[in-house]
Design goal:
Length: 384
């Protein structure tokens, strides 16, 4: 039997299974209209040097203790993991803001939790409010469920509570917000998040994605955990993929009102997180001193990079994450800089998918990697 034809993007083309006249199973129309989520292009094999600054990974490896815990867990690889991630939930509750373990849910990355929320609370005819340059996966969450989108403008690439609330309508069922935001790096204070929450109807779920929360140094920042405790319509999702350096193990977690947690526990995968992932994450979440050191180092390198970019005549946007969004004079100049960096073995992220074709997003790497990046951009600028 012949395989379905694939188009350039990797999606299955129309029915054709090699047997004309026989109908093929039909997916929902809103699924067929959904483009596959696009990740950063991987570095080609065989390069003598590849500096990965495109996926907002932590350039520092996970702690030795976390990695050792993962290795020990492999001795039990023939056993299923804890179905409810109980030990990890207890570790998170002990380490983070005194959370209630029974309202924590763990999954294979925070993206899975976002998808579960969409599956549980959205459907055709519903609407999701997102910020104009917010995390693109939010749009996938809505479209996977057949829901529509209401996009709030971002003046000066900064999220605006007023603009978000203006987009709320009678069909709104969810508002998805990354804080800090990816890719712009902008931040809403705790007071602004509370104002946003107060402006929403009780039947609208406010979902706060704090993937980069551990990088924030602003004293006015609040994670959203207190709102989860005090309201019935706020959810908070987090990840171990960023500051904890466990992106390859795919572990995320969320904190939810009891009723929302009860719903998600009905539909989540019962063995969704691997035993090595849980073991490593349980150690990592307890290493708050290490997290503080990584946060301080990231802030220092981020500031240095922003200064160097400004001296080159570029426009780095203020960031509260482990990346810097940088604007070039035009989309052509951004593309030219991207190609020059790629030729030098330095991989950053183009932003055309976010409607920011004249920007590149640069992940904060090691000090040495930042030096290589700056030197490559300096050479590019001099040769322009």
């Amino acid at each position: 039997m012949s395989r379905p034809a694939m188009d350039i993007g990797g999606t299955v083309s129309a029915p054709g299974n090699g047997e004309p006249g026989r109908p093929a199973p039909a997916a929902h129309a809103h699924i067929l209209a959904l483009a596959p989520y696009e990740l950063a292009a991987p570095a080609p094999a065989g390069l003598s040097r590849a500096i990965h600054l495109s996926q907002n990974e932590n350039a520092a490896p996970a702690s030795a203790a976390a990695l050792e815990a993962a290795r020990r867990a492999l001795d039990e690889a023939h056993r299923y993991p804890h179905g409810d991630a109980g030990p990890l939930r207890e570790a998170i509750a002990a380490a983070v803001e005194g959370l209630a373990a029974e309202r924590i849910i763990c999954a294979a990355g925070s993206m899975e939790l976002l998808s579960l929320l969409g599956q549980a609370y959205l459907g055709p005819g519903d609407e999701v409010v997102v910020s104009e340059h917010g995390y693109l996966y939010f749009r996938s969450v809505a479209r996977q469920a057949g829901a529509g989108l209401a996009v709030a403008p971002e003046p000066d690439l900064a999220m605006s509570v007023d603009r978000l609330l203006e987009k709320v309508g009678p069909r709104t069922r969810m508002l998805l917000l990354a804080n800090p935001n990816n890719p712009t790096g902008s931040l809403l204070s705790g007071a602004e998040i509370r104002r946003l929450s107060a402006g929403l109807r009780e039947d609208i779920l406010l979902v706060l994605d704090g993937a980069y929360a551990e990088y924030v140094t602003d004293p006015g920042y609040e994670s959203g955990a207190a709102l989860v405790d005090s309201t019935a319509n706020t959810a908070m999702v987090r990840t171990f993929s960023k500051i904890h350096g466990l992106a390859g193990l795919r572990v995320g977690w969320g904190y939810f009102p009891a009723a929302v947690a009860g719903v998600l526990n009905r539909i989540r995968h019962p063995n969704g997180v691997t035993q090595p992932g849980m073991a490593a994450a349980a150690v990592a979440i307890g290493e708050q001193g290490r997290v503080a050191q990584l946060r301080a180092a990231n802030a220092s390198l981020r500031g240095r990079l922003a200064g160097e970019l400004s001296r080159l005549g570029l426009q780095p946007y203020p960031s509260h994450g482990n990346f810097v969004l940088t604007r070039f004079a035009s989309e052509a100049r951004a593309t030219d800089a991207f190609c020059h960096l790629k030729a030098e073995g330095v991989f950053v992220r183009p932003m055309r998918g976010y409607g920011l074709g004249d920007c590149l997003r640069i992940t904060i790497g090691t000090a040495e990697e930042m030096d290589v990046l700056v030197e490559a951009l300096r050479a590019w600028s001099a040769g322009a």
